[in-house]
Specification:
single chain, mainly alpha, MetI-like fold
Length: about 325
């Protein structure tokens, strides 16, 4: 009986020793894989930053976009916004206390612009994420699968592209209450993905006829590996450019929806500031014109940054444009 228990304990000991060695080997392999991934990521990131720095358009656009991102993240902490109204301070001129003056309710206009940057940027990022994610997915499936799948996706995209956006948005506003930026971005992306999907489809159809894709197919490589390892990396520059462009278009569309009263009215949103100034007769009051000029300039600056960055990326990734 004693020898039996000793044998059981030895077997348990050997099991835990083997388990410990297996865990140790797994941890070492995971650490090495993580190290290789971080090293490759760092090299790619440095190469990307070097490419951006060497292109004047991309560098200037990146500086502007980074500034807006910084204001969206830390602006509310650096410049706290007081939403109290004071009609005695309405339409004050710019001064040391109010850098851009005040609006028709006596609120600091500069703080409103800074405070609204986070909402505007979140709408832009969510819309670009939905548009690019769904558009690229549909484009890859349509271009790689072909056949009836391609025809069905093409038909759906053509239907969405032919729909009049403005009347549809007005109808949706009657049945859907836009209460947050997530819902607004989702609605904006519904009309934005078809064009991107068709562009991605054409690129995938061209790439899948290349020799390296044909070799992968002959070797029996799985479709998932071909799509995510061979095809997707070759269109990442195009995807990145369209992501920035989608952000630019989303801001313009969201401000327009806010101006028309379709989206939820947020007082610090740049579109809401324009609406409030227009309703207060800012066009006829010289002291109030800055309430319209300031948000319009903010929109224009972001648009310029997005255009410069996307054009710079196109030049940096496209060898033909780089030579020219």
């Amino acid at each position: 009986m004693k020898e039996r228990f000793v044998g059981i304990f030895k077997a348990i000991g050997r099991f835990f020793v083997k388990l410990g060695n297996a865990i140790k080997r797994g941890v070492v392999c995971a650490a090495r894989a993580t190290g290789r991934f971080l090293a490759n990521f760092w090299r790619s990131f440095r190469a990307f930053c070097g490419m951006i720095y060497s292109n004047k358009k991309a560098f200037a656009g990146a500086i502007i976009l980074i500034l807006f991102a910084f204001l969206a993240i830390f602006g509310r902490l650096i410049f706290p916004y007081d939403d109290k109204t004071s009609f005695a301070d309405m339409y004050l001129k710019p001064s040391g206390e109010h850098w851009l003056g005040t609006d028709g309710m006596g609120r600091d206009l500069f703080d409103m612009i800074i405070h609204g940057t986070q909402d505007v940027m979140s709408i832009a990022i969510f819309t670009a994420f939905f548009t690019v994610g769904f558009g690229v997915l549909m484009g890859i499936i349509s271009g790689y699968a072909g056949g009836w799948t391609d025809r069905i996706i093409g038909l759906i995209s053509n239907v969405f592209m032919s729909l009049p956006q403005f009347p549809i948005l007005l109808i949706l506003s009657m049945f859907i209450t836009i209460r947050d930026n997530f819902t607004l971005a989702l609605i904006l992306s519904v009309f934005s993905w078809p064009g991107l999907a068709r562009s991605v489809r054409s690129q995938i159809m061209s790439l899948k006829e290349r020799d390296f894709i044909q070799i992968c197919s002959v070797m029996g490589v799985g479709r998932v590996h071909i799509i995510f390892t061979e095809l997707l990396p070759n269109i990442m520059s195009f995807v990145a450019i369209n992501f920035i462009s989608s952000m630019k278009n989303a801001i313009t569309a969201s401000v327009g929806m806010m101006t028309l009263g379709i989206a939820l009215f947020e007082p610090t949103n740049w579109g809401a500031i324009i609406v409030s100034a227009r309703n207060s007769g800012a066009f006829a009051i010289p002291a109030a014109r800055l309430c319209i000029i300031a948000p319009v300039v903010a929109i224009m600056l972001f648009q310029i940054g997005a255009i410069l960055f996307s054009n710079g990326l196109d030049e940096a990734f496209n060898p033909r444009l780089r030579k020219n």
